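Side project, low priority. Logging it here so it doesn't get lost.
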Amino acid sequence: MWRSLLRVAVASLASFVGGMLVDSVAAQDGEPICVMNVDGTGMREVARVPPRGVGSPDWSPDGKYIAFDAVGPSGWQDQRVFVVEVATGKITDLGRGGVPSFAPDGEHVALHNFYGNRPGGTMPGIWFASRDGSSAKFLIEDGSHPRFSHDGKLLA
């Protein structure tokens, strides 16, 4: 179940997921999302996001994507969720929200939308969105930091 501890990804808050570390490094023209070996060698940039605070990273179960949030220039009310494809660096903006969590199917992401104004609705709360940004569904008004059960049937 756990992947080999040979690669790590680098974004501002660290997180171990599937045996890989996610963290970020600030840069003048954006913040890079990077992967590297656990011993610190072989670091390579996957993508750059606008210069903003990056955090709450979560790997897709297949290790092909990283979901993360980024605080906008006007603060938390401008926080957004992104998904980056590790192989290509393609970034998808899922809209306003934070603390993303991949579903076990790897096709969907749960997130906490602090201020509303998500695609498909304006309610703050927990949302369920497609990884490719094609749809979003409001689930519940209360709660934060959503996490899926291992079988994907429950969301805490």
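Brief comment: The two ends are 22 Å apart (CA to CA).
Revisit when time allows.
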